[in-house]
Protein 1
Amino acid sequence: MNEVLLELKNIHKAFGKNKIHQGVSLTLHKGESLGLLGGSGTGKSALLRSIIGLERIDQGEIIFKGERIDHLPENKLTPYRIRISYSFQSGALFDSINVFENIAYPLFEHTIFSYAQIKDRVAEMLKLIDLSGKEELMPSDLSGGMQKRVGMARAMILNPEIILYDEPTAGLDPANTLNVVELMQRLKEKGLASIFVTHDIPSAIMLCDRIVVLHEGKIIFNDTPQKFQNSEDPVVRTFIMSSKD
Ligand SMILES: Nc1ncnc2c1ncn2[C@@H]1O[C@H](COP(=O)(O)OP(=O)(O)OP(=O)(O)O)[C@@H](O)[C@H]1O
Ligand SMILES: [Mg+2]
């Protein structure tokens, strides 16, 4: 088995009296894609946010390459937020700046690259997301799927080791969904590990090595996509059935 990149050990998290995670444990290996499924409000986004310290866990450990990171103060988290990139549910582009500036933003923030180097790197990312030459377009000129891909390019530009995708295909039509999933597949082929939070079961099955289901604060399923599809666990079955149109 490949090197363990990320380990969540016995995570507990509550918002007031609302207990969200009640002993969540997970491991993510190098190059692996993990699909994180669960009903609305089960705490999938909160779990991704906890991994990069945007949310603080109440109990448990988050370990990245053998190093515990859940206790780090805010000012020590930046390097980990570069190595573990979070691709937001909304795409979260800046509306008032163009595609080039959106994708280049982390480079201007975190590197001392020259303008020429940044231009090359952005062009390389645009090629990867199949939007070569679109530097000058504004987010409002793009389809929903293109916006998601630009958001993913920005999340990728600092060469992270892990990418956390929060519903990258939500709200997209089938053609745009396929484009986004194909991009995720290309990134996976480059060796990038990911956690893919989604309600889109077919996409998760297509992309992921392993499927995990979060239910009532715990992981109730953790196995291959095939075993997931054939599971006889009543909670898993109900979840699969309720996710169909
Ligand atoms: N910052 C917060 N303060 C208080 N409650 C929160 C906060 N963030 C999330 N919650 C609550 O925690 C629960 C889990 O939220 P979360 O957004 O993680 O769910 P989710 O599984 O991502 O749902 P969805 O599939 O709808 O995106 C919800 O009940 C939500 O209202
Ligand atoms: Mg969510």
Protein 2
Amino acid sequence: MNALRSVVRLPGSAPGPVGIIAGIRNLQAFQRDILGFLTHLARTYGDFVQFSFGPLTTYFINHPDFIHQVLVEEAAKYYKTRITKAVLRPLLGEGLLISDGALWRQQRKLIQPAFHATRIAAYADTMVAYAERAIADWRAGQVRRIEQEMMSLTLDIVTKTLFGEELTPAEREDIGRAVDIGQAQVGQEFKTLFRMPHWVPTRAQRQRQWALNVVNRVIDRFIARYRQTREDRGDLLTMMLAAVDEGGQMSDAQARDEAFTLIVAGHETTANTLTWTWYLLAQHPQAEATLHAELDAVLGGRPPTLDDLPRLPFTEAVIKETLRLYPAAYVTAREPQEDVHIGPFPVPKGHTVIISPYVTQRDPRWFDAPEQFRPERWLNGLEKRLPKFAYLPFGGGPRVCIGNTFALMEARLILATLAQRFRLQLAPGHQPAVDPLVTLRPKYGMPMLVLDRRA
Ligand code: HEM
């Protein structure tokens, strides 16, 4: 295995800070700065790190071969972790993101057809039309909350394409607030390993219940409409509910959990990616100019279509490079269901194994000048030359992001539509920072000044 070449220490002596004191220190460091802490572990201890995390022993793998082993070769031995499930189940139920085993296999098979390439191709026009609608009232000189604009846009797109429905402005706003609440609370629970029992009537619990009700009400409205009309609109919701009504294959509760998961996972990640893209472009005028030149040459001011995408390699490179530096899913974890070895290192059953696309994708062994935004690095076949799993913004193996192709298409179409009309600059005095909650969000939002490219 290639990994052995670059592991710092030898089999049997998994390196890393372990012990009671280290466990407390690690937990504190994790809470202060998750990304800094994980980067420090990887750069100090190497490709396989064993560390105490509060009372728990945890393993952190940083080599593409180790990641490949866990996500692909031996995927069947691993489940999502108990901590992930405990924290997310109150929101996502038994939805695709956190289910495992036979239930996950059955659900993935049922839902997968909605994401086939031919199906997704039909969504392109909606994505562009909604992007145009979103900027219809943008004017030069305005300062807009770009993180919110991107959230509303991607939320509208996911509800229309997968559920055949339009949200009311109030629903859109409420879901935005609900996702903010969910992110803050779940992010906190992951960080502190502490979860207040949900029956304790705290303010946080009331907020959480409100957030849950908001999303559930919207899903109920969608379901009720289908049940009234029984109209097969060919969308994912119709498909799932038909599977419920035909009996046996999916329960009503399961369809709700899947809908909830897809609404949340299907817009937040892409919105964050686009928000970071605008930020990076604003910081890198040369890359921005190259993007504009490509869009002007290929599209000449008309809206992009699916067929244009192969002729927009720099646009794609900008999205790929953003996903490298700011992968929305910056960390994921697995729990082996039996005693395993990762490379030469033993990992006992039931312990947490962490993978961080954020850390791996900034590793100087795989990327020159890894901290720099250089979209052009993707133009000459880099992806083919990279070791598999040195770049993994969508995870990999059987549990690879089901929305991978959807998201890449959506992000490129939105970027191409908006960047033809507008440039965005950071609002004066605003200092963005990363906020690693469940996904990698911008702390304090991303207020940006709108400039009209045609002026
Ligand atoms: C840039 C946007 C996105 C990023 C970076 C992203 C990232 C990821 C990653 C890394 C995973 C795997 C997590 C793991 O292995 O533990 C995942 C899973 C998943 N994603 Fe995405 N995602 C994005 C967009 C989407 C979209 C648009 C949808 C749906 C419309 C979606 C739905 C899901 C679902 C349902 C899963 C669970 C799949 C399973 O376990 O079978 N994601 N995503």
